[in-house]
Every structure is written in C-alpha cells, then in structure tokens.
Design goal:
This protein is α/β, with parallel strands linked by helices. It is built from 15 helices and 21 strands. It has three domains: 162 residues, Alpha-D-Glucose-1,6-Bisphosphate, Chain A, domain 3 (3-Layer(aba) Sandwich), CATH 3.40.120; 193 residues, Alpha-D-Glucose-1,6-Bisphosphate, Chain A, domain 3, CATH 3.40.120; 94 residues, Alpha-D-phosphohexomutase, C-terminal domain (TATA-Binding Protein). The chain binds magnesium ion.
Length: 479
C-alpha cells in the first residue's frame, strides 16, 4: 500500500502526514489494507523500534483472521530478533495486565475491538500497561512508510515461548480487588453476554469465582459474531435485556469484542447509558474513599461532573480516548476514571479500560447496596444525552471541523476544543467529533429535557450535513 492510500484523521500534531494509527491502534479491513505483507512490515517496524530492549507479549481475539495475523506478526518479530511470548486468546485488558506483570517491552493484541466482522487490527501496549503514546506511533509509521527496517541476522533470531497462565494471573487480580465474601454470601444471579468475543475466555469463570450464579448468552467464541454485532449498545443487546427479566437476574453484563468495555442492563431489562454507569461507579467510589479525583473525557454527560462534585470529589476532563484518560489518572492519582462508551478504569488493578474488572465492580456495588440497580439509577440527576454518527470521508474531517468551529463559535456561550468542537448553551451542549478509527463523524447532544436534547441533536446533524454537502460541492467544482 502506498503512503497516499493510507487513512488520515484530524487528530495529532501533523494532520497532513499519512497515518496508520487511529484512536486506539491500527484498524482496517482484512484483504484490503490488512494484507500479509503489511502485517509483516508492522512486525518488522516493531522489532526495529524495540531493537532488542525486551520481549513482546502477543495476544489475539477470535476474529476469523486473528490467528493468521498473529502468526505473521510472530514470524516477523522472531526473524528480526525479538523474543515473543504468545499469550493466546484473551481480552485486551487481560493482555495489558500481563504486560505489566511480566515486565514486557511491548504488548500486542490482534483485534478490531467492536468493529464489524471484516475489520481487524492491532492494539499496542507499552510497558506500563497503557497504550503506546502518539510519539511511538509516529516512529512506527515513519519506519513502515520509509521501509527503514533494521533486519535480524541468522545468529540473533528471537525465541518463541508460550504462556498459558495469562488469564489466571489477570483473574486473580480482579478477585483480589473485589469483595468476594459479600458476593458469595448474596450469590446473585447475573446474565453475561460476551457477544461471541474474548470475554468468553475470562468472564463466565470470573463471575462464578466471585460468587455469582451465572447464565451466559453468546458465550461461544466466533469471529462471525452470530449472536449480535460486537458493539454492546442498547439496540444490539435485545436478547440480554430479555434474558435478565426472564431469569430474574440482578444485572445483565455485556462486553465488546476485546472486552475493554462493559455495558449493563438493570433487573427490568433497561439498558444503562455509559454515563449513567460511570456516575454510579463514581458515586460508589467516592463514598468508599471519602474524597479523590475522578477523570473522564469531553464526551461525557454533565451528570458525571454533577455527581462527582456533590459527593465531594474532584473532576478532571480530558480529550476522548483511552490514553488521555489513563495518563491524567496516573498524573492525578485518580481513584476512578471512565468514558461514556463503557470504558472504566480501576487503578488498584490497572490503569486501563477493563470490562471484566468493571463487571466485578458492578456486582460488588449491587451486593453492597442491597438494592435493585434501577433504584440506584433513579437517584441520579437526570440528563438527556444522545449520540449519532454520520458518514464523513477521512479527507473531509479536518475541513469539516474548521467550518463547524466557525459556526459554533458564533452561536454558543462557550466552546471547548480539546477534542472536536463542544459548544455549551445555557441548557445543554453539542459536540461534533470526527472518529479516529472509522470514516464517520459523531454528534453528541445533551439537554436538561429530552426535547432540548433532540433540538440540539437535530441542529448538530443538520450543521454537519450542510457543511459536508458544501465541501463535496466545492470539491466537485475544483477537482
Ligand atoms: Mg474494545
């Protein structure tokens, strides 16, 4: 693939340089961008970058191409002199945990997270267990585009090892940071929906060990995702919402394909928005710890801010994405962090989005409170947050954002531009934010009432459509 064909996004310091990395690793379509040659070159670029500074841990998800991609990566790394420890199939947070636990120089997960079946990709973990920083991504991109690989020699081939204890090591940490005695005494019924993804290897056992009575849905690993699309949103979790009611469970738990995220359904089968779950977790945390910093990103509801302040905590807002949240948490020694997409961070375990750890914490919260999840949710202040996405070509994202900025600057009370354009009005806000991983633009709107949220959303969607049309027309006139 030539540099000209590489996807571009608007994030990062050099918006015009070709990019491979999106918001979280490399993610593309198999057979189109993801070819054997490309995967081998990524492996060689990693070897060049590491230059013998340590081992690589390699894990993968269940996608149809993941084993093949993992083998190509392993082969390239070994040939270029890097020792590889194959960890097998596991969630991304499980691999991240093991990278820190085993002192590896880098962790790689072959996964496309929640993307549709035709996608695959690679997530990169640094020795601290967080994503690698943008500066490292730029070095890897440059190495690949300029083909500046430092090749291995016959007498410096890497060693291949396997490690079968990764899942156990990770599960033990979650159990060690959960009140298993209280959960075992209550023995709650929970329904788990791994969505045919990697939490199928961690979570049925984890939840049983915690003391739950576990019923599973879509717990057969399958890269065709026959049970439901991998994104654990309200629409896709229809079967879980039904099952929770039918089995009289206290909660329904779902994860995305690589299980860095968790979604929850209450005992009536009502889906909890990510912000609501985050506010609940933050409230519980602050009551346990009495004080502390909670970190969230610009895409979160005002609800989180309000709950943290009313519980006597301190709120920190970052750019969207897992690394900005993780880094701010480390910097501020935060007690909890979260993103509205269902990524929650528990620093006593690890500072990374962790779906299985979040499921344990939800069960613990329910057992400690002794009350139904729906009641706990009803006590939170109410906001109406909605989000949608519109198709926008990668090449249109930067000019679109500039035009949206001009318009919103004119009409909003306050504009926050740390990530996308977030416009505050007296009774709500609107955020326009192009995706770093897909050719789409997300629009978020929140209001005190459902009507106001809808009004702001309609306005945002109309604005994006109008500006995209204008850009298309202009491009048509001056090819
Ligand atoms: Mg994911």
């Amino acid at each position: 693939m030539s540099a000209a064909q590489m996807p571009r996004t608007v994030e990062g310091p050099t918006p015009n340089a070709p990019r491979l990395f999106g918001t979280d690793g490399i993610r593309q379509v198999v057979g189109r961008e993801i070819t054997p040659v490309f995967v081998a070159e990524v492996g060689s670029a990693i070897a060049t970058y590491l230059r013998g500074s340590g081992d690589v841990l390699l894990a993968r998800d269940f996608r149809t191409s993941s084993e093949a991609m993992a083998r190509v990566l392993t082969g390239a790394l070994l040939m270029d002199g890097i020792h590889v420890r194959e960890m097998g199939v596991m969630p991304t947070p499980c691999l991240q945990f093991n990278v820190r636990a085993l002192g590896a120089a880098m962790g790689l997960t072959v996964t496309a997270s929640h993307n549709p079946t035709e996608f695959n990709g690679i997530k990169f973990t640094d020795p601290g267990g967080t994503e690698i920083p943008r500066t490292s991504e730029e070095i890897l991109e440059r190495t690949i585009f300029q083909r500046e690989f430092v090749r291995g020699t016959w007498d410096h081939i890497g060693e291949l090892r396997t490690d079968a204890d990764g899942v156990d090591r990770y599960t033990r940490s979650i159990l060690g940071h959960s009140d298993t005695a209280a959960i075992r005494a209550a023995a709650p019924v929970v329904v788990l929906d791994p969505g045919n993804g990697t939490s199928a290897v961690t979570s049925p056992n984890l939840l049983r060990e915690l003391g739950c009575r576990v019923i599973t849905l879509n717990a057969n690993p399958d890269g065709h995702f026959p049970g439901r699309p991998s994104e654990p949103n309200e629409e896709n979790l229809w079967a879980l919402r039904k099952a929770v009611v039918e089995f009289g469970a206290v909660v329904g738990i779902a994860h995305d394909g690589d299980a860095d995220r968790a979604s929850f359904v209450d005992e009536h089968g009502t889906y909890l928005a990510g912000d609501v779950t985050m506010a609940l977790f933050a409230k519980h945390r602050l009551r346990e710890r009495a004080a502390g910093v909670v970190v969230t990103s610009v895409t979160s509801s005002t609800l989180v801010e309000d709950v943290v302040r009313s519980e006597g905590g301190e709120i920190e807002i970052t750019r969207s994405g897992s690394l900005p949240v993780a880094l701010r948490m480390l910097e501020r020694r935060a007690i909890f962090g979260g993103e509205e997409n269902g990524g929650y961070y528990w620093p006593e375990h690890q500072v990374a989005r962790d779906g299985p750890m979040s499921s344990a914490k939800m069960v613990e919260l329910l057992v400690h409170s002794g009350r139904p999840l729906s009641e706990l949710v009803q006590e939170l202040p109410r906001y109406h947050l909605s989000k949608t996405k519109l198709p926008v070509a990668d090449s249109r994202k930067a000019p679109l954002l500039a035009r949206v900025h001009t318009q919103l600057e004119r009409e909003a009370e306050r504009l926050v531009t740390i990530d996308g354009q977030k416009a505050y009005y007296s009774d709500g806000w609107l955020l326009v934010r192009p995706s770093g991983t897909e050719p789409i633009c997300r629009v978020y709107a929140e209001g005190r009432t459902a009507a106001r949220a809808k009004e702001l959303m309609d306005h945002g969607v109309e604005l994006v459509r109008r500006e995209v049309d204008w850009l298309e027309e202009t491009a048509g006139r001056t090819p």
